[in-house]
């Protein structure tokens, strides 16, 4: 079973991907512990800033 983190929604990073027609087809929430990388540069990691 996956471990659940207890963060407030405001504490998550939002990753918006696959824009189409003024909307995003993919929106994912990341906890402060999860790395986020751009699709074009998966080896790069974006830093967390509150």
Please tell me about this protein's structure.
With 50 residues, the protein is mainly β. 0% of the residues lie in helices and 32% in strands. It contains no helices and 2 strands. The chain has strands spanning 13-20, 23-30. The protein has a two-stranded antiparallel ribbon. The radius of gyration is 12 Å and the shape is globular. The N and C termini lie far apart (28 Å). The mean pLDDT is 82.
Give the helices and strands, then pairings.
Elements: E1 13-20, E2 23-30
Antiparallel strand pairs: 1-2
Number of strands: 2
What Rg is obtained from the alpha carbons, in whole angstroms?
12 Å
Quaternary state of the chains: single chain
Q: What would you call the structural class?
A: mainly beta
The sequence of SSEs as H and E is EE
- Describe the biggest sheet? 2 strands, antiparallel
Question: What best-fitting shape do the alpha-carbon axes yield?
Answer: globular
Distance between the termini: 28 Å
- List segments where confidence is low: pLDDT < 50 over at least 5 consecutive residues: none
Average pLDDT confidence is: 82
Looking across the biggest beta sheet, what order are the strands in? Answer: 1-2
* Relative strand content: 25-35%
Number of helices: 0
What is the share of helical residues? under 10%
Compact summary:
The protein is mostly beta strands. The protein is built from no helices and two strands. It has a two-stranded antiparallel ribbon with strand order 1-2.
């Amino acid at each position: 079973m996956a471990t659940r983190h207890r963060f407030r929604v405001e504490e998550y990073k939002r990753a918006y991907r696959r824009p189409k027609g003024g909307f995003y087809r993919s929106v994912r929430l990341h906890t402060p512990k999860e790395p986020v990388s751009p699709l074009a540069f998966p080896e790069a990691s974006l830093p967390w800033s509150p």
